[in-house]
From TrEMBL:
A Pfam family reported for this protein in Swiss-Prot or TrEMBL: HisKA_3
Stretches assigned to the Signal transduction histidine kinase subgroup 3 dimerisation and phosphoacceptor domain: 170-234
Primary enzyme class: transferase
Organism: Actinoplanes philippinensis
UniProt-listed Enzyme Commission number(s): 2.7.13.3
Name of the protein: histidine kinase
Classification via Gene3D superfamilies: 1.20.5.1930, Histidine kinase-like ATPase, C-terminal domain
Cross-referenced InterPro entries: HATPase_C_sf, Sensor_HK_TwoCompSys, Sig_transdc_His_kin_sub3_dim/P
Entry's transmembrane regions: 59-82, 94-111, 123-144
One of the record's GO cellular component terms: membrane
Record keywords: ATP-binding, Kinase, Membrane, Nucleotide-binding, Phosphoprotein, Transferase, Transmembrane, Transmembrane helix, Two-component regulatory system
Coiled coil: none
Amino acid sequence: MRIRPSPGPELVDAGLVLACLVLSLLAVKTPWSPLPWPVVAAAGVLGSAAMWRRRRWPVAAAVAGAVAFALGGNPGPLLIGLYSGARYASRRHAWLCGIAGWAGFVGWSWFDSGKLTVDNIVFPPLGIALVALAGVNLATRDALLVSLREQGRRAEAEQSLRDEQARAAERTRIAREMHDVLAHKMSLIALYAGALELQTTADPKLRDGTVLIRTTAREALVELREVLGVLRADVAPAAASASASADDTGAGQFPDLGALVGASRRAGHPVELRDEVGDLPAATARVVYRVVQEGLTNAHKHAPEAPTTVSVGRTEDGGVAVAVHNRAGAAPMDLPGSGSGLVGLAERIRLVGGTLRSGPVPGDGWQLSAVVPWLDPRPEVS
């Protein structure tokens, strides 16, 4: 079924103006007021025309509608003007619309009977209050919808910012780990070149080559440290501290999954490790370690004391498949979290060409799984 779009504000206002003009014609022919028909007609036309700008000038529309009712007995402009004043006017001016409507009722009673009674003074405010209540109710609803939309946009922007910070922190953490590995290798190259330099004094060309290797290795090491310094300066303190704390958990050059699982067991969480691969290349091992670390952290938070299985195996294309599966546990622990752990982990795995999935297992808890390429190091030259 196709939903038709609601008519625009201009079309609605045009229809209201037309309806008020029809009522003005009836007010002249019936008549609804003892005043001369030119006065009744003029009041009806002017009051109807004022409804065209009722959203922009709601107080003026309410006053014009009250005048049209007082002089011509036409209730259309009066009711529409009161409603518009209650919905579109500011709260400090809305009471003027109510006074104008009450004055319109009193004026019409005076012109119609030549006197005022208690009923003419007391009962009209009840009708005015009902119309004003409808306008205020819709105005409140509109303000609430605007507030909810703004909150939604702000929450989306904040979540996007947190995700970007998590990605930036993960890239920086990867850069620091790469620096640690490369710095170690470059230091060894410089050390071996220095030792070789002392043994090649008899061959000037070979000695010059070893000096060049040692100097180049040291220059590369200095440049690596400068790049790391820039990356550290660009990261927010919170992201840098999170990166440092993650590095302190044991993700060194050769992370130990057994130690990570053992720490969870000592904390009272039943964790089973099924490692069918064994030794991994250092780069692959670091990514696998991060996946298991994040999975166990989430299990501690959301399923304490639930049986958890950590599985590491090979895929058909030679990669490494790692999964952390926890069954449904007790009530989640009241621990704070930014929700950016999976975002950073996904960024890390994306950068190495892997895939990450997380979600509930129907009737059997939650699972975090990833496929990481086998990142072979370059063969050493003997």
